[in-house]
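note to self: dont lose this again. the chain is below, predicted strucutre after it. 226 aa total, dont forget to put it in the shared folder this time
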Amino acid sequence: MPPPRLCPKLMSFDVFGTLISVRDSSYGAFERILADVGALHLDVKAFWEHWEERNIAHYWEPYRSYRAICELSLAETFDHFGIAGDSRLIDRYFEAFSRFFLYDDVVRTLDHLARDHRLAVVSNIDDDLLALTPLRRDFDLVCTAQRASGYKPDGTLFRYLIEHAGCAKDEILHSGQSQFTDLVGGKPLALTIAWINRRGVSLDASVPRPDFVFPDVHSLIGLVEG
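---
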């Protein structure tokens, strides 16, 4: 059966992995990091995933900037793989932000949804880094970790979204790709969440169930206009 039609007043989106293809956009930067430390023999994708796991672990801790977390996680990932490296090499990643690319369905989908819905972004990011991305759009609401002084997993960033939404919580539809930030942080607050499972991964047993599952953001059009 098709999902029931929703009529959200605010549609919020995770950015990295949902709107921006962050893995494919940043592997090159991490390859340069590995080249700088003489570790090109390592699998860049495995290195990246460990680094991202450390980022998420630090999101639960007292607030520090995304830049600071990324640098700390790089140091920990160097240690994990037995590499002697300077964690300040994370600048290679930040320098790549302006070259990140959107998924093919993003611009046309957001343009379409914006006709009848207010749009927001909710991102574990610093404001200046978000501004560097190709997501050059005036959203009705911008929720960043910097503005909320906290991240998604413990609910801090989602509480910021709810407080600033300008509508009731049940009138918000959030869409995001991360089980361990979007679902773990948003579902305990009773947000309606569409899991955008672009990579076709399995849902971990420890993660709250999403309300909807879609392979891309274009599929949301049928949910809110079907």
